[in-house]
Specification:
Order of helices and strands: HHHHHH
Structural class: mainly alpha
Helix content: 40-55%
Number of helices: 6
Distance between the termini: 79 Å
Mean pLDDT: 77
Shape: flat
């Protein structure tokens, strides 16, 4: 009988402890430094005024940027010639023998090379990790290089 009493008491104690633990304020308060941050050489960083507004991002969408790459004369129109320039460059890269005709082997060389590079164990098949290496690598957003703290302090 005493086992039931001890077990019941333990369960009640755990419920009370859980309630106390989870009902507290879970958001930590920000801890701000009371003094300027000291640099490695022991000097403090002076207060550098921040700009009034954040730099504006470009309003151009991916499609607008793509349009601008094709529109070489910047007249807001893409002519047939402007459109085909990009295609001719891609075609010329594939037309290895330069005869103006694209054979299946010339067309498929990129795909077969990509497959051969991804098939690391040369088994003739790709596993899921091998296939993942064939995904198109997209460029991320351009990163802004901020000047170091010392350079900003020297300018002011």
């Amino acid at each position: 009988m005493w086992r039931y009493v001890a077990g019941g008491t333990a369960v009640i104690a755990l419920i009370v402890a859980g309630f106390m633990f989870f009902s507290g304020n879970a958001r930590p308060r920000p801890v701000l430094p009371s003094q300027p941050i000291a640099q490695a050489n022991g000097t403090s960083v002076p207060n550098v005024p921040l700009p009034d507004a954040a730099p504006e991002a470009t309003d151009k969408t991916r499609e607008q940027k793509r349009f601008d790459r094709y529109d070489k004369d910047r007249d807001a129109k893409i002519t047939r010639k402007e459109y085909l320039i990009q295609r001719r460059k891609a075609y010329a890269r594939l037309d290895v023998d330069g005869d103006g005709k694209l054979s299946f082997d010339e067309w498929a060389v990129k795909a077969t090379t990509k497959f051969a590079d991804a098939d690391r164990d040369k088994s003739g098949t790709m596993t899921a990790p091998e296939f993942a290496t064939t995904a198109v690598k997209r460029k991320g957003p351009a990163r802004v290089n901020c000047p170091p703290v010392q350079a900003a302090a020297e300018e002011s």
